[in-house]
Amino acid sequence: MKRRSALALLGAGLLARPALAQATRTLVDSTGRKITLPARIERVFVAGPPASVLAYTLARDAMVGWVVRTPSPVEKEFLAAPARDLPETGRLTGRGDTVSLERLVAAKPDMVLDFGSTSDTFVSLANRVQEQTGIPYALIDGRFAATTTSLKLAAEMLGRTERGAALAAYAEAAFAQVDGVLARVPTDKRPRVYLARGPEGLETGSRGSINTEIIERAGAVNVAEGMGGGNISNASLEQIIAWQPDIVVTLDRGFFNGVATKPGWKQVRAVANGQVYVAPGLPWGWIDAPPSLNRLIGLRWLLSIFYPAEANLDLNAETRKFYDLFYGVAVTGDQLARLLGGTAN
After folding, report:
1. What is the rounded CA–CA span in Å between residue 168 and residue 214?
2. pLDDT (tens digit per residue) in 125-145
3. For position 69, what pLDDT does the model report?
4. How far is CA 116 from the centre of its chain?
């Protein structure tokens, strides 16, 4: 992954912060790196969008800002004050990284938190930033399967162990519910699913990608196999027709609203049968966008679509519970109606 060239231009001596005389503790992040942290974390700089969700849910009072942009008015409806009004800081990781190390140091964080890939590329970046700024930089495993363990580790680093335990208990219950439902559904009765991204629905995630792991965790068969090209790939309508998914899940409401009239799409079984669903996306997407803790409510939403009888979920109640616990907001009836879409006919 391309990294910001400014990293190579900044001298370690110019950026390193003076050591502060305060109590510290040493913890090990998801990559095995030893991180020395202040005894109390009061300011957290998040490296990318998934880490924004993690930091918001665990320690929103300590966030110094949002990495990409400040939330839009409609997103702010589903976020708690004062965190929803924090400024944009820029991002350290991913496409379009925009923050310089001078700006990072000026934010005076006690630590940098990243949540997602723990590959060598990200380890290298974390080490370089930490060496050049003197700011502890923790990498937390963002794989969906690691959610419970990662929540507890991040909570310990942030000094929010009680909060982390409550969120981890929710995650454990969600995964246990999935396993319980799948135990009652034979493999050959599980749906074949296509994830339609983009306004034309032709972007998708290949089987095993970070963008579709939630669909696969819910026991469905991701029809897009062997696409190559990383997490997101382009499919042709001819391929989708050949795959014949039972269900199409989309992130794009424009595609959802118009799919039934798009040329050729009626040849797709899911479209012909009215089995197209648009994933809720406020304040963050329920499938990915970003792939973070927001996927936990998405997992229950998928269960209600894939196995409505076996799951027997009260999705309104589940949504209200999740938003209260994770986001600190009480969802109204009108907001529920806007969050929970219908089926394209």
Report:
1. 17
2. 999 999 999 999 999 999 999
3. 83
4. 9
What is the reported pTM?
0.90
What are 181-236's pLDDT values in tens digits?
Answer: 999 999 999 999 999 999 999 999 988 888 899 999 999 999 998 776 557 889 99
Q: How many angstroms separate the CA atoms of 345 and 330, rounded?
A: 31
Rounded to whole angstroms, how far apart are CA atoms 51 and 53? 5
Asked if residue 241 lies in contact with residue 202, where contact means CB atoms within 8 angstroms, the answer is no
Q: How far is CA 45 from the centre of its chain?
A: 17
Tokens of 241: 């027709």
List the one residue out of 341, 257, 266, 255 whose CA is nearest residue 304. Answer: 341
Q: Which two tokens stand for residue 272?
A: 């012909």
Inter-CA distances, 280 with 17, 106, 250, 295, Å:
42, 36, 9, 11
Crossing angle of helices 161-182 and 295-306, rounded to 10°: 20
Among 130, 136, 166, 133, which residue's Cα sits nearest to residue 148?
166
